[in-house]
Amino acid sequence: MTLLTDILSFNKTFVENKEFEKFATGKFPDKRVVILTCMDTRLVELVTEAMNFKNGDVKIVRNAGAIVNHPFGSIMRSLLVAVYQLQADEVLIVGHHDCGMSSLSSGAMFDAMKKRGVQEEVIDTLRHAGIDVDQWLEGFSSVEESVTHSVNLVKTHPLMVPDIPVHGLVIDPATGKLDLVVDGYKKAAAL
Question: Required cofactors, per record (predicted)?
Fold first, then answer.
């Protein structure tokens, strides 16, 4: 049996038993918040539980490292959609300690890619085409600096609501303890 077979078998029973009913909610977040956080498996439920949010309270966007690294990439677009179409009035950017992106190097990524069949010529072609894949695949050295960078990119984005609070936090994946990095209320008031 494959993982996909297991998933589909479970899902059939899930639907037949109406297990979905306990997750029923609307498409708009009850607490009017959108969270950008990391895709780390330790955070799947911990982030919302540690903040006292339940299903339906928030919109969640996830990526490697909770990083907004391009002002017109899919992460920024998702945050803008949450604000303008899904009624989010605040943004929380939540990085975490012991993040895999904290020491990621493009060299290690390229080595792993080559071991799985990506040819050196493909990487070289991207470089020659002007794509800075080395920078794109680099991690960060400080989660607090990374969160601050993402907060600033969101806060100063030309399409973002100017006075929306954009908060930056770091969570401990072992305990759920939150450390405040950027208080978006103070930053919003300063503008």
Answer: Zn(2+)
